[in-house]
DNA sequence: CTGATGACGGTGC
DNA sequence: GGCACCGCCATCA
């Protein structure tokens, strides 16, 4: 079977460590030609029994995208130590995933 | 091939 | 700070 574009998204998401979160846009930045929308599309296509830690991907505002089952996502994150504010948002400066290596820095031109 | 589908993000007010 | 608009593309039946 040919590797689909979505598989590239799953590869990135799988690298997010426990207790850390990434935004859809951040995940997209690791994949050439990928957009935040596509990350969302890809995650929706995941089967229920997947081992991909999809719960660690949230929107740019630090909140869980409203949808059926979002409660489970929040609980899963809280189990990993992620704390939500009263408004249901997390603090990016505390929980943002820094990336697999330094690839995301390079893409942003923050590396020499 | 065509059409339906879907977890976002940036901008402007 | 919050809300409405719009852009946009791989998959699947």
Number of helices: 6
Proportion of residues in extended strands: under 5%
Estimate the global geometry from the Cα principal axes: globular
Number of strands: 2
> What is the arithmetic mean of pLDDT?
90
Strand arrangement within the widest β-sheet reads: 1-2
Radius of gyration: 14 Å
Q: Which series of helices and strands comes N to C? A: HEHHEHHH
Based on secondary structure, the structural category is mainly alpha
The helical percent reads: 25-40%
**Main sheet?**
2 strands, parallel
Low-confidence stretches: none
Determine the N-to-C terminus distance. Answer: 38 Å
Brief digest:
The chain has six helices and two strands; from the N terminus they run αβααβααα.
Description:
- With 112 residues, the protein is mainly α.
- 38% of the residues lie in helices and 4% in strands.
- It has six helices and two strands.
- The protein has helices at residues 5-13, 24-29, 36-44, 70-79, 92-95, 103-107, and strands at residues 22-23, 57-58.
- It has a two-stranded parallel ribbon.
- Helix 1 packs across helix 3 (36-44).
- The relative contact order is 0.18.
- The model has no long low-confidence stretch (mean pLDDT 90).
- The structure holds a DNA duplex (13 and 13 nucleotides).
């Amino acid at each position: 079977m040919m590797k689909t574009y979505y598989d590239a998204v799953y590869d990135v998401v799988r690298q997010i460590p426990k207790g850390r979160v990434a935004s859809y846009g951040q995940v997209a930045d690791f994949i050439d030609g990928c957009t935040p929308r596509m990350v969302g599309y890809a995650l929706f296509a995941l089967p229920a029994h997947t081992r991909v830690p999809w719960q660690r991907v949230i929107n740019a505002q630090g909140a869980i995208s409203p949808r059926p089952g979002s409660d489970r996502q929040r609980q899963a994150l809280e189990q990993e130590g992620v704390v939500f504010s009263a408004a249901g948002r997390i603090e990016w400066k505390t929980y943002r995933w820094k990336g697999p290596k330094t690839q995301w820095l390079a893409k942003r031109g923050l590396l020499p």
